[in-house]
Amino acid sequence: MRSSHISFEVRDSVGFIGIDRAEKRNALKQDMFETIGEFVNIAEQECRAGVIFSHGPNFSAGLDLGEHRERTPLDTFAASRRQGVIMDKIEKGRIPWLAALRGAVIGAGFELAAATHIRVADETTYLALPEGRRGIFVGGGGSVRVSRLIGVARMTDMMLTARVVQADDAVAMGAAQYMVPAGDSLEKATELAHAIAENSSVSNEAIVAALPRIRDMGHDDGLYLESAIASLVQSSPGATDGLEDFLAKRARPLQ
């Protein structure tokens, strides 16, 4: 399936959403966000994990600023709110999402990657938040998600100075969990996604939907929800099968 510079396909229970506007360094327009949201909804119904990747050498150079320039403040507010709904669907939905990063991961591209659960960078990856230099502000949830990944001080530095962060530093600061040789991020993300898809779907959903919500709660409320989720997940068929496999020494080895 393909629409509005976004591709989608399902392979072995894993959904792949591809950003395909290489001639513009995969700059994101609002209709592209909307299409990503539509494909995320489909993936939740048909897949057990998902990967967001890029066609071409750059994950995304951020918003299409030509489109951004033509918006009124109310238009910008509405677009930001819609992006927030789509990012929340990725972060707090039913299936785990991985991002295969390479080249430019800038602005809204970084915000999109931050909404996924596992980010795989290759050696060509570099991150930037040049909003301060552009006279704009993040609008795709970055002030919440990116700041929690790398810390407010680092994010402030990146936005004020347009500092570029290379792949190894991105891993060190928590913006990505894996770094692989140039050109290998999609292969590694695919490998991880297939492994994750073999987990109990109930456990996977509990992990990706509950953890970000627990993070936003107070201490006691978070612990209470943790106990409730643990009891529900443990009663699922996937937990029964997984525990039996472990006790019978049939469990898959740890990575």
**How many DSSP E strands?**
10
Which structural class matches the secondary elements? alpha/beta
Radius of gyration: 18 Å
CATH class of the largest domain: Alpha Beta
Broad shape = globular
How are strands sequenced across the largest beta sheet?
1-2-3-4-5-7-10
Number of helices: 12
What value does the average pLDDT take? 93
* Total individual domains: 2
The CA-CA distance between the termini, in Å, is 33 Å
CATH homologous superfamily identity of the largest domain: 2-enoyl-CoA Hydratase, Chain A, domain 1
For the record, the CATH architecture of the largest domain stands as Alpha-Beta Complex
Looking at CATH, which topology of the largest domain would you report?
A: 2-enoyl-CoA Hydratase, Chain A, domain 1
The low-confidence parts are none
Task: Provide the helix percentage.
Answer: 40-55%
